[in-house]
Amino acid sequence: MLAMERLKKHLSDRASTLRKQKNDGVKIVGYTPGGFMPEEIVHAAGAIPICLLKGGDADSVIESLKYNPRFFCTFCKTQIAYLMGGDLVYNLPDILIVPHTDCNHKLIADSWNYYGNTDVLRYGVPHNKGESARAYFKGGLEILKKKLEDLTGNKVTDEKLFDEIQTGNKIRSLLKEISFARKTNPAAISSRDFTMLQHASTFADKDFIVQTLEAVRDEINEKPTADKNRKRVMMIASSLANGDNLVFDIIENTDADIVYEEVTEGYRPYLDNVEVNGNDPIQNLSDTYFDKRVPAPWDRPWGDRMERLIEKAKEFSCGGVVWYQMMYRDGFDIQAHYFSKMLEEQANIPMVKIESDYAPAEKGPARTRIETLVEVMSAN
Amino acid sequence: MYTNLFKLCGFSDEEIDEQKPRIEKTLKIIGSDTKEMIAKAEKNVQSNFDCSLEGIRMLLKVMMKEVMDAVLSGEEYEKRVYYNWPGLSPLAQAMIVAGRGTNVYACLAKQYLWMGLGNIFDTVNDLLDLGELIGQTAGRAHCPEYQIYTALYERKILPIPTIVLNCGWCCDQGPEVEELCTKLYGYEATYLDGTNDWEWGSWPNMDKRAIEYNASTIKASIARVKETTGLDITDDHIKAALQEIMQITMGYMTLIGMVSKADPQPISQADIGLVFLIKGAGTRYPKDVINGINMLIKETKQKIDAGVGVVPKGAPRVYVQLRTLVDQKPMRAIEELGLAIPMMMVDGYHPYETQPTNYPDDRWMSLSEQAFRKPQLSSAEGSLRYWEWAAKDQKVDGVIMMYPISCRPFCSPTFIGKDYIEKSTGLPTILVEADGYDTRNYSSGQIKTRIESFAEILKANKKLAAGTL
Question: Which residues on B lie below 8 Å from A331 (Cβ)?
């Protein structure tokens, strides 16, 4: 696709563009993935948000062991390695924002605080959706707003926020439109390309990404429908880093396509937009970024996460599920045990669990498991 | 068959006879009702603790009684509410106090089961194997305490509760496994929630917003416990609980104060570990615990007066960052290398921890603030400052940064800690992998080998400083 080629070029130049902007006095705000950091507030403050999302390479895992014990989520523990290893992007931010979801994200914040020179702001993501939890999360966004105002010297007005919410909604709506095109045509866009769009939406220039998404949307509407015999798979992932292609590399060599993804860290949640009316844009942001989303496995109670995942598997006519989790990400491993049974009982859909520590040797066993899933789907 | 074991654990012949039906039921349920299993337990308990000390036997008796109460609570009580740590001892003890004389069994059942099955009966590895098959895959650093917990339900050792109050303030895995268990075994759980988002540099001034949120989850959980069990935790219960905890804590502090000041170290940290375990869990038998600690203090003083100890006089002193919880042998192994351990883990109270509360008019906010001032429950930066203080306060010669591989909150700041301690104090510091609950992840022999050359360096440093090398 032409739009994707243009996007690749934009992304390859992006770090140096950002460096120039930083040198010109623009503040760069890094943040950890998970979908709990509203970019709208950063833009409204006149700064540029970038999600730190690198991963997938074994060297970063080895490097990370200099700084922390190995028994942490593979994605999270490698983040300090990119900073200390001199990665250009990781050394851009004037501040790192870490919404605390669990111990693994706390590790990122602690490591950056101790080993690095970048300012770090944390705010908590409570593990239930009760009234005091919602108020607490909203309070975190207020702190974020104040911090960014102090960093940039710019006032974050309601007007600016509502403007940025409109842009954010446009991005979310386009991502949803593109993703949902796979309901009827799995060839509309590959999961690898959709993931690239997702990752780019947290790093590229915001106007450029809107144009790109519009172009991709238009291009896929003209694509011919895929072979109807191809199997449809849903991927549920704990973290899907930029550079982590294990599942794509395997599934693309089978006669199955991933047609829907639920990615807890690495995707921008796009199912719900932010309300543009009212007089409290921070509340509106909090409602969408905290409340209106698929719960995560670290939530307690688990809420309706598993029911919603099954609903999506049915909605997208998926005959199998690939559950992809980072090594040592406890909550996902625990929930996978129960979810696979629930999926089988309620929807008769088989599931395989793939786990990664970004080790090259994982590819063989993962291939066997995914190919077996596809064969089981054929038999069904 | 079991008389000698129970005598080692402080029971008299009359008490054994009186408790016979309960003892036999318990042994059957936990799967330790054969001669071989009893012999294994006798050997194990003596390898962990110095059973010649009367104070130790008195405390082991408490542990054994708590194990029996937990296992038999299904038939002896109408309802059960468990408090699952890590977390807030005053709240747990208040629950216990509120449950006295009612048809509600309220206790930290899980904790006493792993304590007893680990330190006395030596049967936790079998439970760990089972827990690994129930959503907590082997080799993935899942919390072994919760692997044991899941297996306790699966094996029907721990009766299904009416409700569990689970603390997720500093720990993710506990509540995550609790959720799984509620689905698998059909009970309700309520959670103390927290997000541990304290800013670097903020400890011990804990953020009011977070304290309010944490406290709100206590209030909600207590209300839910009342709705489901009728157990009403009143101010009077809390006052009584605080008094009981205070007495136990004072005794404990007296004991570790005596041990840390004495040269040679008079009793093993393995024996102190027994007090640590019971103090941390709360107890249905506070008077027995206080009497046991007082007896241990008396026996310790006798050893100090006699100048006897578990290490040579003048031995290098080390701070050890972790207590292994289901077996105490690693502590003995370190002491066998000729290293004195004046203080371990979170034994001491940093002066910041004991500052007056900022919330004297709100009990739950006050307790939340107090809990989070214990830095290991909240802040990596606070932990660094705690370790630095502990090392200087105890005038140690080195630090053993032993860390639990399967506990993310506790192992998280340890690498940073080694770097920080070396830079801030100049003390030799060694990282050693271990575990709180899973002896398959380490052995006291391995730990001894790992620390042996470190011990030699500390001894040489000491001689060098004294000009005797």
Answer: 172-173, 176
Find residues 346-375 of chain A whose CB sits inside 8 Å of chain B: 355
- Segment among A317-326, B104-113, B302-311, B441-450 with least mean pLDDT: B441-450
Question: Which domain does A24 fall in, by range?
Answer: 2-157
Q: Which two tokens stand for residue B166?
A: 């689970």
User: Burial level of A143, CB count in 10 A (0-12/13-18/19+)?
Assistant: middle
Chain A residues 301-340 with CB within 8 Å of chain B: 301-302, 327-328, 330-331, 333-338
Which residue among B180, B213, B409 sits closest to A337, beta carbon to beta carbon?
B180
Cα separation of B373 and B376, whole Å? 9
**Cα gap B427→B113, rounded to integer Å:** 38
Residue A103 at interface with chain B, using a CB cutoff of 8 Å = yes
- Note whether residue A74 is domain-resident: yes
The Cα A248–Cα A258 span in angstroms is 9
- pLDDT given for residue B376 in this prediction: 85
Give the residue-averaged pLDDT of B343-372.
93
Please check whether residue A9 lies inside any domain of the structure.
Answer: yes
Residue whose entry in the numeric block shows the structure tokens 């992304």:
A11
Sign of CA dihedral A108, A114, A116, A120: positive
Q: What's the confidence (pLDDT) of residue A229?
A: 82
Segment B316-333 shows an average pLDDT of 96
Q: How many CA atoms lie within 13 A of A270 on its CB side?
A: 27
What residues make up the domain containing B118? 3-53+67-236
Q: Is residue B469 part of a domain?
A: no
ipTM: 0.96
- Give the count of beta carbons closer than 10 Å to the beta carbon of residue A149: 16
Q: Which residues in chain A have Cβ-Cβ distances shorter than 8 Å to B180? A: 334-335, 337-338
CB contact under 8 A, B183 and A331: no
CB pairs < 8 Å spanning A and B: 149
Gap from B140 CA to chain A (nearest CA, Å): 5
Has residue B51 got a pLDDT over 80? Answer: yes
B144 inside domain? yes
Q: How far is B375 from chain A (nearest CA, A)?
A: 13
pLDDT-derived band at A187 (thresholds 50, 70, 90) equals: confident
For residue A33, the domain's CATH number is 3.40.50.11890
Q: Do the Cβ atoms of B197 and A123 come within 8 Å?
A: yes
What is the per-residue pLDDT for A90? Answer: 98
How high is the pLDDT of residue A221? 86
Substitution target from A65, A70, A71, A351 for chain B, most B beta carbons within 10 A: A71
Contact A110 B412 (CB under 8 A): yes
How far is A340 from A334, CA to CA, in rounded Å? 11
Closest CA to B71 of B37, B30, B106: B30
Beta carbons of A104 and B166 less than 8 Å apart: no
Nearest beta carbon to residue B137 from set A122, A135, A333: A333
Domain count, chain B: 1
Cβ contacts (< 8 Å) between B182 and chain A: which residues?
A: 301
Distance from CA of A215 to the nearest CA of B (A): 40
Q: Please check whether residue A138 touches B, CB under 8 A.
A: no
Q: Would you call A330 and B408 a contact, using CB atoms and an 8 Å cutoff?
A: yes
**Residue B103 is assigned to a structural domain of this protein:** yes
pLDDT value of residue A327: 97
Residue A114 has pLDDT above 90, yes or no: yes
Q: Is A292 domain-assigned?
A: no
Average confidence score pLDDT of chain A: 97
Q: What is the pLDDT of residue A222?
A: 84
Distance (Å, whole) CA A122 – CA B201: 12
pLDDT in tens, A308-347: 999 999 999 999 999 999 999 999 999 999 999 999 999 9
Confidence of residue B168 (pLDDT cuts 50, 70, 90): very high
How far is the C-alpha of A11 from the C-alpha of A51, rounded, in Å? 13
Residue A330 located in a structural domain: no
Q: Is residue B270, in this structure, part of any structural domain at all?
A: no
> Which pair of structure tokens corresponds to residue B428?
């030799």
Number of domains in chain A: 1
